[in-house]
Design a protein that fits this description.
By secondary structure, this protein is mainly beta. Helix content is 15%, strand content 45%.
C-alpha cells in the first residue's frame, strides 16, 4: 500500500474512532489501544445519547473496544451496543474533507431490553477536524 493511501486510511479510521469514542469507545478504539500502568486511572468519555425508550441519557464510557459498554451517569444502568452506524466527515489540517460511513453489527440480544439511540459529535485534534452523526442499537440492564 502506498504511504499516502495508508495515511489517508489512518486519518479516516481516526475520525471513525473519534465517532466511536463518542458512542462506546475512546479516540483510538478502532485502532489498537495502548496499555497503561496499573496505577493510572481509566480514560473515560462522556456522551449524551437521545434514545427512543430511555430518553436522553448521559453515558460514561471507559474502554477502548468498539463494543465497549457504557454506564448511565448517576445510575447503575449499563448500555451494551450491538449495532453501530457512523456517518461523518474528517478534514485533515492540510487536505480535503473525507466523508465516511461505517456500519458494524453483532447479533442482537434475545431479551426485550433494547433501544435505538442517536448522537452528534464534533471536534478538533492536531490531525484535523471531524463531525460525526451516529446511531447505536443497544441493550441495557434494568435499573435497580
Amino acid at each position: 500500500m502506498k504511504p499516502k493511501t495508508m495515511k489517508r486510511r489512518t486519518m479516516k479510521r481516526r475520525a471513525i474512532a473519534i465517532g466511536a469514542a463518542a458512542l462506546m469507545t475512546s479516540a483510538s478504539s478502532v485502532l489498537v489501544g495502548t496499555g497503561r500502568a496499573g496505577a493510572d486511572p481509566p480514560e473515560t468519555e462522556l456522551l449524551r445519547l437521545s434514545c427512543d425508550e430511555l430518553g436522553t441519557v448521559d453515558v460514561d464510557i471507559s474502554g477502548r473496544s468498539l463494543w465497549s459498554s457504557g454506564r448511565v451517569v448517576r445510575s447503575n444502568r449499563v448500555l451494551v451496543p450491538y449495532e453501530l452506524l457512523f456517518e461523518g466527515t474528517f478534514t485533515p489540517t492540510q487536505g480535503e474533507p473525507q466523508n465516511f460511513t461505517e456500519h458494524h453489527i453483532k447479533p442482537a440480544p434475545r431479551h426485550g431490553r433494547t433501544d435505538h439511540c442517536t448522537f452528534h459529535q464534533e471536534g478538533t485534534d492536531p490531525e484535523g477536524t471531524f463531525e460525526v452523526d451516529g446511531q447505536v442499537w443497544l441493550s441495557y440492564t434494568p435499573s435497580r
